[in-house]
Design a protein that fits this description.
The complex is a heterodimer.
Chain A lengths: L1 H33 L3 H4 L14 H8 L6 H32 L5 H12 L4 H13 L7 H4 L7 H11 L4 H8 L4 H30 L2 H6 L8 H12 L4 H35 L3
Helix pairs in contact in A: 1-13, 3-13, 4-8, 4-10, 4-12, 8-10, 9-10, 10-13, 12-13
Chain B lengths: L7 H42 L2 E2 L7 E2 L3 H8 L4 H36 L5 H9 L6 H11 L6 H4 L12 H27 L3 H9 L4 H12 L1 H16 L3 H7 L12 H10 L6 H29 L1
Antiparallel strand pairs in B: 1-2
Helix pairs in contact in B: 2-3, 3-7, 3-10, 3-12, 5-11, 7-11, 10-13, 12-13
The chains are: A mainly alpha, B mainly alpha.
């Protein structure tokens, strides 16, 4: 029987090696091609690896401040994503604490009502949300990317669930020692929520960094838009006739989330099972 | 509500009580306000707007069911034609994308669950594309599928994949699965690793083969996760927008080959020319209702099973 499992392990290893090779192919191809010269890209019968490594595509795209200010877009995106990550931690931890550890009338009913409302498909919201944003004068403004998402409920649900698992004795002990609600929150519960709040921060950052539909609606000023909306314009500005710079831009856009993944992989992977495993 | 208090002590008590009652609001209040302005009001607002003629600038004019009638039944209307085209493509995407987006990650998760050497690395690689934005992913695939200089030209493909049926659909689905399946895979994987080893072993002693063990033990054990991912994947597929936009838009200002509902909704509301936000809202409501009904049916079907 042992032999059999070993054989099946070998089989799965072989299949997975092939699959993984196919899976990274687009990304590896894009990275290699972005380091090729434009002539080499357009020459028939080229190889997978660049014959001559060049950074001309990166220099070309980074120096274009005219119709594709990619550095500006990168900084815009970074500002939006970091701000959302920080604000999310604050709002989500406060709210989840309120719905899990404070006692007040209709607490759970209120939470489940909010939860149910938030499950309405978000297509319905886009048009009215744009109107609300324009009333606040946030069209072409980073606020449009930062504030509305803070009303979401999913992350609060996740953290609330986590917080419900912390035994009541912790608060009670602190309360006997004379600690107020704020102290209990900051000194007792918050440190225990750290792992799940890390997940919230990572996901908030990634979702803002990668958001596509909404920024293409609220931004038409090239200087103000985030990278995702900018890249779509780039497809029009370069697409079809210059492959190198546009692939270089795509690679630049992938760097931040890739680095986060490299250093915090376990949080990314465990968050998924957290969100699906609540009832399972 | 004016009631005269009796003395200071009572007042103090009451103010402390009021403070105690306000305390939860200090925690949940900020979110409650954000939720109301950016989630609750837009839903109600969107519903109301769908019954009006509105261009974002002037005040909406009540139109009753006119928008819905126009979209659903007026065969002459361009809105009806756009809606039917968008609906056709969106539904086709759902039908093609959902089964693949469930089966492929399930297969990978089952393979990873055999814990072969290097399974951690395989998992990292397979999850990787999920981290990137659709604009970056779309650019890469668009260029990769470029028939003259792209990766496919190395393999001797002569078709212009992103402009010819049915290749454009095949490419669209492959790219979508490549981009999104990581999430489902990790969910299945976590669930599978929680299934007790004893169950497998006793089944093996009873002479159950690998396929039987998967069918009778593994899949029933991750039933809830399968339902969860099914609902999420179906809803996500109805909301498809970025993939066809990035992949099938041809060069400068070209119209996408595959037009989905959200594209039409976006163009009606935010496109160049006068906005027809009321009509677009009605389309959004119809799409939203579709998603809600389908999710509900899925839940009912599965909970009946129990």
């Amino acid at each position: 029987m042992k032999k059999k499992t070993r054989a099946s392990r070998w089989a799965s290893c072989t299949i997975l090696t092939l699959v993984a090779a196919v899976w990274v192919l687009p990304i590896v191809w894009a990275v290699f091609t972005s380091f090729k010269t434009e002539t080499e890209i357009k020459t028939k019968g080229f190889g997978f690896l660049p014959k001559v490594w060049t950074t001309e595509n990166y220099i070309n795209i980074l120096q274009n401040t005219d119709n594709a200010p990619i550095v500006r877009w990168f900084l815009n995106s970074m500002f939006m994503a970091v701000t959302v990550a920080v604000l999310s931690i604050i709002i989500v931890s406060l709210t989840a604490y309120g719905y899990s550890r404070l006692k007040f009338k209709y607490r759970d009913q209120l939470f489940y009502t909010i939860m149910a409302i938030s499950l309405f498909p978000s297509v319905i919201n886009i048009i009215p949300l744009y109107k609300i944003i324009s009333v606040f004068d946030w069209v072409n403004n980073a606020m449009a990317m930062i504030i509305p998402g803070l009303g979401a409920v999913t992350n609060i649900f996740l953290v609330r669930q986590f917080s419900l698992g912390i035994p009541k004795e912790f608060d009670e002990a602190a309360r006997i020692d004379g600690a107020g609600e704020w102290r209990i929150f900051t000194m007792v519960i918050l440190p225990m929520l750290k792992p799940v709040l890390t997940v919230v921060a990572l996901f908030s950052f990634t979702s803002v960094w990668n958001d596509f539909l909404w920024p293409t609606i609220v931004f038409n000023d090239v200087e103000k838009m985030p990278l995702t909306a900018g890249l779509q314009l780039l497809q029009g500005a370069y697409g079809g006739f210059q492959l190198g710079p546009i692939l270089a831009a795509a690679c630049i856009a992938m760097i931040p989330t890739f680095l986060l993944y490299l250093f915090a992989q376990k949080y990314f992977l465990q968050s998924m099972s957290l969100s699906a495993g609540v009832k399972g | 509500m004016k009631k005269t208090g009796t003395g200071n002590t009572d007042k103090n008590k009451r103010s402390r009580k009021a403070k105690g009652r306000l305390l939860p609001f200090a925690f949940i209040g900020p979110h409650l306000i954000l939720f109301t302005i950016f989630v609750l009001i837009p839903i109600i607002y969107g519903l109301v707007i769908s019954f009006t003629r509105w261009d974002f600038i002037n005040s909406p004019v009540w139109a009753g069911l006119e928008n819905y009638r126009e979209i659903l039944f007026n065969r002459e209307s361009t809105y009806h034609i756009q809606f039917m085209d968008g609906l056709k493509n969106t539904l086709l995407f759902v039908v093609l994308n959902v089964p693949v987006s469930i089966l492929v990650p399930l297969l990978f998760a089952l393979l990873l669950n055999m814990k072969p050497r290097g399974s951690k690395i395989f998992q990292s690689i397979l999850y990787l594309p999920t981290l990137f934005s659709i604009s970056a992913v779309g650019i890469i695939w668009m260029q990769m599928l470029n028939k003259r200089f792209g990766l496919i030209s190395m393999f001797g493909v002569k078709h212009s994949v992103t402009t010819t049926y049915p290749y454009v659909w095949i490419a669209l689905i492959i790219m979508s699965v490549w981009w999104t399946m990581g999430t489902n895979m990790v969910i299945y994987q976590a669930a599978l690793s929680g299934v007790s080893k004893d169950l497998y072993e006793s089944a093996e002693l009873d002479g159950a083969g690998a396929l039987k063990r998967i069918w009778y033990i593994a899949l029933p054990s991750i039933r809830f996760q399968l339902l969860y991912t099914l609902v999420i994947t179906v809803a996500g597929s109805f909301n498809v927008y970025g993939q066809p936009l990035m992949l099938t838009q041809q060069g400068v200002g070209g119209a996408p080959k595959v037009n989905v509902l959200i594209m039409y909704i976006k163009n009606l509301a935010f496109g160049s020319g006068q906005s027809i936000a009321g009509m677009a809202s009605a389309m959004a409501i119809i799409l939203g209702a579709f998603i809600l009904v389908v999710s509900f049916i899925q839940f009912r079907l599965v909970s009946k099973d129990e």
